[in-house]
Amino acid sequence: MNRAVKLILAAALVLLLSGCYDYSEPDEKAWVLAMGLDKGRQNKLTVTAVIAVPKNIAGGGGGQPASGGGGAGGNFFTISMEAPTLLSTLELLDSVVDRRVDLSHTKWFVFSRELAEQGIAGYFAPISRFYQFRRSSYIVVCQERAEDFLAKGVPKLEDNVGKYFELMQRGWRYTEFIPFDSFHQFYLKSESPGVEPVAMLASLNRKAPVFESNSPKPKGWYYAGRIPRRGGGPVEVMGGAVFRKGKMVGILNGDQVGVQKMFFDTFRRTIVDVPDPKHPGRYIIVDVKPRQKPEVEVQIVDGYPQISVDLKLEGDIISIQSGENYTTPDRLHIVEQAVERILLKDINDTVAKSQELETDFLGFGLHAKKLFRTWPEWEEYRWDEKYPGAQIAVNVDYKVRRVGLVHEMAPLR
Amino acid sequence: MTQYKPVVGVSEAVTLLFIFLSSKVFLTHVVFLYHEGLNAAWMIPIIQTSTGLLGLLLLVSVLNKFPGRDLVEIGEELTGPYINLLFALYYLAVFVFGAGMTLRGISEQVVAGFLPDTPISLVVFTFVLGTVVVSYLGVEAVARTARFLLGVMVVTAMALVLLTIPLWQFDAFYPLWGGGLWKLLAGALKNTGDFVQILLLGIIYPFLPVNQVRQIGVRGVIVAGFFLFLYVLAPLLIFTYPSATELTLPSFEMARIINIGRFGQRMEVVFLPVWVFGNMIFLSISLYAGAAVLARLCRLSDYRPFVLSVAVFTTVVAFVPRNALQAAYWNHQYLSQYSFIILAAILVILLLTARAKGKGGDKNEQGG
Amino acid sequence: MMSWPKAMLKYLLYQKPKSIPSVYQSGIEDKLEEAAPQPSGSGGKEPGRKPEAKEHGKPTDGTGGKKPRKRVARQRNKTGSPVREKFVGKVAENQSIDEILQNKVKLVYDLEENRRVLAKIFRVPQNKDAVLRSLTIGTDPPVKALLVFIDGITNSQVQNLAVLQPLMLISGLFDRSMDEQPGANGGTAFYKDLFDRVKEALVPANQVSTADNYARIVDDVLNGNSALLIDGFNQAILLETKGWQYRSVGTPQVEAVIRGPQEGFTEQIRVNTSLIRKIIHLPSLVTEFIKVGGASPMQCAVMYLDDLANPDLVHEVKRRLESIQADYTQVTGLMEQLIEDAPFALVPQVLATERPDRVAANLLEGHVAIVVDGSPFVMVVPATFFSLMQSPEDAYVRWPFGSFARLIRYAGLFLALLLPAHYVAIVAYHQEFIPTDLLLAMTGSREKVPFPSIVEVLIMELSFELIREAGVRIPGTVGTTLGIVGALILGQAAVAANIVSPILIIVVAVTALGSFSIPNYTFSLSIRVLRFIYIFLASVLGLLGIMVGFFVHVGLMVSLKSFGVPFIAPAAPVTRKNQDYFMRGAEWQQEIRPDYLDPLKRRRQPRISRGWTGPAGRKGDSGPQ
Q1: Predicted local confidence at residue C80, as pLDDT
Q2: Which of A267, B341, C40, C512 is at 20 to 30 A from C400, Cα to Cα?
Q3: Could you report the predicted ipTM of this complex, rounded to two decimals?
């Protein structure tokens, strides 16, 4: 019996020698770290691929130490190709790049705003079928052409532009300005009735001034392409692009993205400048974190939804500019109410915006689903049509938990 | 005195049965349940498990009348060689067809996800080779292999589910009743064939510890039901209803989407063992059981000559569908939908004949 | 003769079932089946099949029966070889000596004739080792005698003081005192005859026995005893005079532990058995000596606890040992190959250890130990996968650390077996799994490497094997150079020369560490070999190849048996077990002996082994409070 097994094994090994179909060394593949899509000039699309140059990133072979990044722009290069579809570009790229182009490490799929506003459903949905593509990658909308965005977006800190893309996106954990939705959520929200996705908004640095005067504005008013700044890397990521039925319909600024995240319980923290109620022109700076999941109650009255939302937040006081001593138990509520006021304003703005855009990117539909017994009933209700007519009441409850390292402040004299 | 030693112990038998029942969750199969149950498809496995348990009790009640004999022998005793031939061919069809479709399915998955440039014939050949060796070594080897790999498989399978928890969206449960209660029930009853593999118990019955077969069966079916439930539920929670129906391989997509930090991404390779081992154990069992049915049918004392022929047969069946899609559809149409009713009918016929002819006794009397 | 395709077909398609009682497979508890003939599964459907009783090991079957016949025929053909024809006289003489020994020719009464035959057998006078010393026993009247022994393996001091001196000098003295006994008649009243008297009263050696044939004398003399032949008697007295040089008991060389006994076995069987008996002070510890082998009859001891070990297991061990016909079996490594169940399997199926404490612990579990003279390793059977992965140290340190050590060791096993293969598979097939940063770093460092990854891995693994083999063979005095050479080749030079990528050095180093952490040397060897198979599979089909290979590997491993015990017991098949097969449980949890051994006593310590914890704690305490 042993001999029989061995004979079979031997025969198998001989036959298997014809294998190795998929054998390929990592240095025989070109690793695409991001793809960009634009409206084409000479064909339907302009597809841009960001391809890493490993020898510069690794600092050359032979165990020598990395040689300081290998110069600006040396760590990746971009190729833009005119092609009818995204995936056929993969083959087209191979006529330019000596190594086989591989998408399995792609982090970002960048769409130009121009293309996004025309509708990108036909581009992103079909690639989920392709085995190299991953649902954990991200959809980014950039204000200018994606080819410029990717070619000029050389990070300052990173050698590996892929790491830059990933870290930039992971900012959603500590700022409210970056949307959470990966391709996975983006895709699901696009397909599900009752909710719409928000994609990351990115842009190159704007050269012209954004605002005319230096009047006070909340920091959350900005969004990518409209951040007043000098210096830093060429790329900025802030705010979100709202989609409906695969078409970009609007832009959310930083604060509005934060509100959107609050409703999906993906909001982690933000810093809010609260105008001091007793000292105009001065700010109380607080940290805001979620305390519980948002409580959303939906009722259907006369065919239209009535939505009441309870948002429960908490946080720390980081700083009080005026030096006013709010940090006694009986005076804290002044700060809390001020915070609630300013948050409520943001939230109401966002809710109004979503109704104005007729796009339920806040996901009220997901809560409305619970009112229905079966799926067909829910689909028949046509939430998308009813949502703009919904009455939405939001209640914010903010509690200060800590006051930082200063217990009670003595005013400056 | 018992005639047969417990060749396959309780733990190994439960392992065999539940892997044989539930390895299908790793293939396209689950998606069909989403079409039946919409977003409440997770209820279908629960109903299926209860029908599976009913079928199992029927099977065990037939088997326990004739201790030490398997279903083919019992059929021959009760219905004679000619009718029994039909029955046995049905058993054979369940094993060979199931194995063929699974072989094709897992090979297509490997080609689709891991080795896109490799010809499918090579992958199929590799699988057949591995399973033939193990099933040639006998039911004991298959059972022990399954038992030995069980730890790896259960840990990996649970990890696959647990690592996706951050992606679960519990609003996917609503509307609670999916397409409606009656549609759910109809969908579940239509797909009872998911538990047709309890037939295995009838083939390896002589090697199981006497008096514990019912317990083995119930435990196997319940564990299988649990995994079926888990792997229907998890993709539903991750991908939510309309998108979940689009997936070709839900468990594979689950593995691809896991994202636990920058390091823990693109981890589908880590879960390859559970797909490969699960389906290889399924194939080994099928090959062995098919060979055993043939051996009984031909009244040969050794199953081994048939292993290779069943393997060839299975490979041929695997290549009959023109594409991966057809393989998945056939598996659903022919195996998952109607097979269980036929099995139940056969069992009822056997039970009635036994009662009419007054044959068979209680296991205690016969076994003594 | 069958043509080879036919033969292959025969193997591929069908083989006569190897006395498997049922259609399907044999049972776990084979030994039960010995008792009753098997009522087989298919009832009366197997006409003409003998109900063979299933034995433990490889049952003899059709194929097994044919081969020896062929071999005999070949031997017969060789009888007419030119060498034999040239030295025909010599051959005839050898044959006549062999016949004397084989036929157990009896001694004769004539001392001279006995002396002539023994001289012929021992090739005296050419052979200077064999000594035939004539002497005269100083009785009244003096009697001629002959002392036969082999110089060098006898203790000459014992011979002088306990044999020659009493016989030649003191015998007369004793003679007189005999005569003075009342009612004595020439001393024959107390002793039957002179021979009896010599044996009983004149040789104060501690072990004495008699022999009546040449073969017995030759055996004993070759084992270091002396034979005393007395004129006029057709019997010889065999005297215990063994005394040869051997290594003294030292620390174990291979299985070192930190906390635990520091003695190891030596090459002397008596010392080895005494080392075991020193630990187990039980009357039920049985040491049975079995002669194994043909041309070089030697001693081999089977040790077991009579009230514990399954008699079937003991019987099977003895049966296998007794049936061995082989030239040279003085070393456990050789003996092992003759008694193991599956010679083609890559894993060891006996546990060879040089630690008496380990043997003792195993004996107390119900295992059987085989001690072979001339080898400092003792075989413990049956061996399971888990026993091969254990070290005595696990039990000697407290259980959390023992368990941790085992976990590390299993990780080491996994790494040693599969790490290089996984490296190949992931680098060449599944690059998406590598984190992007690492992938780019690896790709960058590979840019100048001319070889594909698989070749790199093979180069490094083979050179590592080379260093390891050289390390074992290298003379101790130049041993230190090896480390330098190895470190240079494997480490810096290969990377600096752009022959291998730097990450591979880590892979090879970790693999090496993993394989060194496997406590059993033979098992570690098998892992070293299997590693290359996995590397090959990985290079052909990536991870799928590894998985399929592993599946088949497990399949073959679980169907393996060591003396009737499944190799992976108690994991598959699942049997009752202690907290001691995978992880080491606390000492007071070790309540039962391994179920797969079917020992006569199952429980090894009561449920409450720490009596002081209970209310009726101390011994002698009567009742609570």
Answers
A1: 62
A2: C512
A3: 0.94
The answer to the question of residue B5 being in a domain is no
Asked if A182's CB is within 8 angstroms of B259's CB, the reply is yes
For the segment B174-224, what is each residue's pLDDT rounded down to a tens digit?
Answer: 888 888 888 899 988 888 888 999 999 999 998 888 888 999 999 999 999
Helix C88-102 / helix C111-121 crossing angle, nearest 10 deg: 120
Q: Listing from the earlier edge strand, what are the strands of the sheet with C130-137?
A: C130-137, C143-150, C226-230, C236-239, C208-211
- Return d(Cα A105, Cα A162) in angstroms, integer: 8
Q: Which domain holds residue B295?
A: 14-367
The shortest C-alpha distance from C571 to chain B (Å) reads 7
Residues of B in contact with C29 (CB under 8 A): 5
Instruction: Kindly determine whether residue B257 and residue A191, on different chains, have CB atoms separated by under 8 Å.
Output: no
Q: Is the pLDDT of residue A217 over 90?
A: no
Q: Which two tokens stand for residue B85?
A: 């031939």
A242 backbone dihedrals φ, ψ, rounded to 5°: -85, 135
d(CA A204, CA A202): 7
Nearest to B9 among C543, C555, C573 (CB): C573
Bridge partners (DSSP) of residue C322 are none
Dump the DSSP string for A226-284. Answer: -----SS-SEEEEEEEEEETTEEEEEE-HHHHHHHHHHTT----EEEEEE-SSSTT-EE
B35, B137, B241, B247: best mutation site toward chain A, by most A Cβ within 10 Å?
B241
Nearest to B141 among C426, C432, C558 (CB): C558
B338: in domain? yes
Measured between alpha carbons, how far is B147 from B132 in angstroms, rounded to an integer? 18
Substitution target in A25, A159, A160 with the highest count of C β-carbons within 10 Å is A25
* Residue C24: pLDDT over 50: no
CB contact under 8 A, B175 and A12: no
Q: Does B1 reside within a domain?
A: no
Residue type present at position C242: K
Nearest CA in chain C to B291: C24
- The structural domain count of chain B equals 1
**Gap between the Cα atoms of C510 and C524, Å rounded:** 15
Looking at per-residue confidence, does A123 or A398 come out higher? A398
Structure tokens at B70: 């398997």
Domain boundaries, chain A: 23-262, 269-413
- The answer to whether residue B171 is domain-embedded is yes
CA distance B18 to B225: 8
**Residue C468 burial (CB < 10 Å; 0-12/13-18/19+)?**
middle
Distance from the A324 Cα atom to the nearest Cα atom in chain C, whole angstroms: 49
Pure H helices in chain B: 10-22, 30-37, 43-63, 71-113, 120-136, 139-162, 181-190, 199-204, 213-239, 241-244, 250-257, 272-297, 304-319, 324-330, 339-357, 363-367
At residue C253, does pLDDT exceed 60? yes
| Domain A269-413 belongs in CATH node 2.10.70.10 | no
Spatial distance between the Cα atoms of A179 and A170, rounded to a whole number of angstroms: 9
CB–CB contact A12 B129 (8 Å): yes
CA distance A28 to A26: 5
Nearest CB to A22 within list B115, B125, B174: B115
Of the candidates C15, C453, C542, which has its C-beta nearest A25's C-beta?
Answer: C453
| pLDDT tens by residue, C574-602 | 877 777 788 888 888 888 888 888 899 88
Looking up residue B309, the CATH number of its domain turns out to be 1.20.1740.10
Averaged pLDDT in 10-residue chunks for chain B of 368 residues? 57 93 89 89 92 93 88 89 91 94 92 89 91 91 93 93 91 86 89 90 89 92 94 93 88 90 85 93 95 90 89 94 90 87 92 84 44
Cβ of C558 within 8 Å of Cβ of B6? The answer is no
Cβ distance A184 to B167 less than 8 Å, yes or no, reads yes
